[in-house]
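Quick illustration for those who missed Monday's session on complexes.
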Amino acid sequence: MPNALVTSIEITHVLPCLADPAKIRFHAETSAELTGVLPYLNAVIHGAIYNHAVPALTFNKDYRIISLHPRRITGAKVDDLDDARAILDNLTALINDTWARRAGITPSYERRERLTPVDVFKLLPRTNCRQCGLPTCLAFAVDIASEKRSIIRCAPLFDADSADKRHLLLTLLTDAGYQVPSPFRPTDEAR
Ligand code: SF4
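Prediction with iron/sulfur cluster bound:
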C-alpha cells in the first residue's frame, strides 16, 4: 500500500501462553510508531479497550488477546506461529487501512469497553474460598469489572500456583486502565 504507516511487524519472542499451555504468546515490534493510529483503531475495532495514558489498545480476536503499544504488539492464547503471523498480517492491513482513512474517522480517546466479569472470572482461582469477603469468585469478578473492589483482595491469586493467570489478569487490568497497585503492575519487559 502506498504511504503505508506500517511496512513490517517482526515477531521477536515466542513464549508459552501463561493462561493456556496448549497455546503460545508472542511479542512483535512494528516498523513505525503506532501512538497516532491507536485512537482511530479504538474507533473502528468493536469492543476494544483503550488506555490513552499508557497508551495501549487491547482487543479480543475470537479467544486470542491482542495488545498494541507504541512500538510493540503482543498476543496471548494464540494457536501457533502460523496463527501469530496471520494475525499480524491482518493487523498490518487494518492499521494501514485505518490510517489511510483517518480523515473520515472520528478518533476515540475514551476507554470504550470495560473488562467483563467473565473476562476476570476466567483468570481467578475459582475456588470460591471466600477470602476476598465475597461468597463466590464470580461475585468478586463482578466487583472487579465494575471497579468496586481491588484485585489484591483475592489472596489466592497471589500464590505461586496462580502466577500465570495472575500475570495475564494484571496485564489486562493495567492495559484497560483499572487501578492496579504499582508493585503488582506488570513491567514492559514482563509482558
Ligand atoms: S478470594 Fe479469590 S479465589 Fe477466593 S472466592 Fe475470592 S475471588 Fe475466589
